[in-house]
Amino acid sequence: QMADPFLYDSGERSHYGCLGHEVQIEHIKAYVCRPSFATDKAVIVVHDIFGWLFPDIRYIVDLIAGHGYITICPDFFKGTDPWKTTDHWADFADWMRDHDPMKVDREADVVLKYLKEQCGAKKIGIVGFSWGGMAVHHLMLKNPQLTAGVSLYGIIRDSEARYNLLNPTFFIFGEKDHTISYDQITLLEEKLKQYCKVSYKIKVYPGQVHGFAQLKPEDMKPDDKPYIEEARKDMIDWIKMFV
């Protein structure tokens, strides 16, 4: 039995008035937000288990677009159901088998092609949260078209090959994340030191739980707010450094 990793009820979230629009790209839908000026820089946002429609992830897309990037969140679940608050955690392992964060390559290629050919993007970064953080870790090992990545509280284990990143990657964790142990973060650090030939960074934010960095301002607790804002600034600074 897996504990519920989110402290809020995703069914009761405030409705976020999105700034972007939805598009259909080949077999997937996506949410896109563009900055107010023309740019050849883009960022792909990979959603968590709650999917591409979840207000928090669209808030992040709009936030990154505000920093001058064509920002896109594709539906990596390809129209299938995301995890819902009414689902039972006993079924989570089965759901994960059908929604493997390491089987995102085809969708990533479709989105990269769209960004390059339809949006004129020359440099493309990627950020992902939880499930999406695992997908980013995987893609930064596989896809050289991604200039830089930020993986937030998503970790892939159990293979030496998983530490040989192709391009600069930043790993963000919450200190109180009950889904990722401190040992796993330490192992990641040791293995990256050993195998990784590109820039990387690992940072653990004090007192923060799983999912902390994508909360909208009205959902932040005052004690957590500085860490949430710092994590977001760090995420955007990393992207700005390379993309």
UniProtKB/TrEMBL annotation:
GO cellular component: cytosol
Annotated Pfam families: DLH
GO MF: hydrolase activity
Signal peptide: none
InterPro entries: AB_hydrolase_fold, CMBL, Dienelactn_hydro
Domain Dienelactone hydrolase residues, every copy: 28-241
Location in the cell: Cytoplasm, Cytosol
Family of this protein: Belongs to the dienelactone hydrolase family.
Name the record gives this protein: Carboxymethylenebutenolidase homolog
